Every structure is written in structure tokens, then in C-alpha cells.
Amino acid sequence: MSEQTVGLEGGAIPGAGTSNGASPRPGLRERKKQRRRETIARVALELFDRQGFAATTIPQIAEAADVSPRTVSSYFPAKEDLVFPDTAESFERLDQRLRQRLPGESAMDALRAWIMAELPGWEGRDAQLRMQRRVIESDGGLQAVERRHHAQAERRIAEAIARDLGSPVDELEPRMAAAATIAIFDVLGEHRKLAPEGGRIALAGEQPEALVLLDRALTFVAAGVQAMRDYDADHAA
């Protein structure tokens, strides 16, 4: 069965997606800058995978990308950013999607809608995401960066669930539900590692195994959130 690549940084939400298509097409200058940025990130990841994150220098990356070291640093101020090149933008889209929910739309519904909107940008990136996973798992500092990213995503999701429950974000219930949601992506990351290499992301109309797993897991978390709502309502009455 085809592989569905869903996760955060190769085991959790990768931040490699595109916007929802509402923005106008960027101009030629912006497209050139984006291609240059993508090239720098790609060759950096290849070098990290081949010779190690710590052993790879910014001048080496610049030479491989045919740019100056200053250009590399202008696109990626921290070396770690080269391993997580699109995380900030992807999380911003997640935050916006959770904050701008339609009336009656739950946090879990919005989260799934965000994932489906990101899927086109993940198409055909299986090899790159596997490479990213290897680089992260080979370096303790990168693992710490990934944990911080996970914590940021968990906080965003907890805030949205807290709004669903009408409770403070630091209450136990939204934090538990958000932690369970992040755990879903860890499981999907393991699913990717076990799937045949070269699998692709299925898009509209297809239901690969990992997307089915995602739906089941989100349904489980959503049911837990609803149960907490019912519990609070019963006890309030």
C-alpha cells in the first residue's frame, strides 16, 4: 500500500507544506529566492546525512549550493534551521487554522483540515523526509530542537482544545488531549520508517493506511474531548 507521509519533522508535523492556495502566485524575484532557499536546505541536508551535522560547516554548504556563506546565513540564521527549514511557516499556518475555525468546527476538525491542506507540499518528499529523520536521530542537539518544536505545536493544540472545552489552557484536560494528539504523529513517524522506501503521499480521493490511522487516532482524541465536555456539563448540572 502507498505510504502516507504525515508527521512532525519526520516523526511529527514536518513543516514542509504549502499554503492553502488563497495567496497570489509570487513574482519572479520571489520564486528565485524560494528556489535558492530550497537548494541551500536540500544540499545542507545531503551533507549532514553524508558527513554528520556537527562536521558540516556553513562554508561547505555554501560551496555545494553555489552561494556565499553570507547568503546561507541570511536565509538560515542558525545552522539548526537548515534541518527544519519550513517549521516556523508551517506552524504559523497551523496556528492560523486553529484560531480561524468556523462556528462549530472543533480543534480536531481544524487540525485534520490543516493536514489535508499541507499534503500537496509533502508529495514526493519521502526520500528527503527519511534523510531528515536520520540526521535528527544522529544528533542530540537536533533532537532537543525537535522536542521544542513538538512542545510549541502541543501548546497551540492545547489552546484550541481549551477553547472547545471553555477551560484555561493549563488545565489538565486540554494538555492531556494535546499530548495525545502529538503522540499520534510520533506513531505515524514510526509508520513511515517501517513502510517501503519510495512510497508516496496519496491525495484527494485516496485512503492509504496511514491516513486511516490518522483519522482513527483523531477520532479517538475528539471523543475524549467530547467526553470531557459531557463530564463537565453533568457535574455543572
What's the number of extended β-strand segments? 0
Taken as a percent bin, the fraction of beta residues is under 5%
Kindly report how far apart the N and C termini lie: 49 Å
- What sort of overall outline do the alpha carbons produce when their principal axes are compared? elongated
Helix count, DSSP H or I runs of 4 or more residues = 9
Q: Which residue ranges are poorly predicted, with pLDDT under 50 across at least 5 consecutive positions?
A: 1-7, 12-22, 200-207
Average pLDDT works out at 80
Give the helices and strands as they follow along the chain.
HHHHHHHHH
Q: How much helical structure, as a percent, in the residues? A: 55-70%
Q: Major β-sheet, in short?
A: none
Q: Output the radius of gyration.
A: 19 Å
Structural class: mainly alpha
What does this entry show, briefly?
The chain is mainly alpha-helical. It has helices at residues 28-51, 58-65, 69-75, 87-99, 107-122, 126-137, 140-165, 172-194, 209-236. The model is unreliable at 1-7, 12-22 and 200-207 (pLDDT under 50).
Explain how this protein is built.
It is a single chain. This protein has 237 residues and is an all-alpha fold. 66% of the residues lie in helices and 0% in strands. It has 9 helices and no strands. The chain has helices spanning 28-51, 58-65, 69-75, 87-99, 107-122, 126-137, 140-165, 172-194, 209-236. Helix 1 (28-51) packs across helix 2, helix 4 (87-99) packs antiparallel against helix 5 (107-122) and helix 8 (172-194) runs antiparallel to helix 9. The longest helix is centred in the last third of the chain and has 28 residues, at 209-236. It is elongated and about 70 Å long.
